[in-house]
Amino acid sequence: EEGLPGFAAKQMAQWLYVKKVRASSYDHITIARCFYSQGTIYQHMYDWKKVIESNINASNYFKSSNNVNSQFRSLLRAINGYSQLYETNRASEIILQANTLLSQVSFANKGFYYATCISFYSDNEMIEELRSVLSEYIYNIPKERIDWISVAYAYTILNDYEMANSAILTRFCEPEPYQPTTAAVIDGIST
Hints:
Layout: H1 6-24, H2 28-44, H3 48-64, H4 68-84, H5 88-99, H6 107-123, H7 127-140, H8 148-157, H9 161-173, H10 182-186
């Protein structure tokens, strides 16, 4: 540990712990979580190949445990790894794999999926795919759960600056729904 910055030392300690737990466990959920945690460590180290490997392994173990949301989330993290390595074909394959699970996952994960795809398609100027996923995102996700900054970015890639501006205005200028404060509820003035 001597000579390593505090953050790197903590990462190494966490990595060793994960490796030990994974080696001694037969429980698929525990093993999946270890791989997922390992992927997080590798992400902080910018070791994208190991990010991908860890998250694909996590996804497989989550799948064998019927934990669809975690399986899905692991696949999305693998997409980001492939994207960082500019391996667009592999990222596209994983997007298709994740898409088969889309109807089974939470709204939060669906939103993450669409944001991941928008980022990937935008960065790789895959215009038709971007148009399609952008349309699905806006249609299928509740307005308050949409990442309007990603949407605005996508519209700039599509050279639709009016819609990009509209997305920004939606994000920053629409009033938030009224949420009474705790004090207002207690005082009976939340109506």
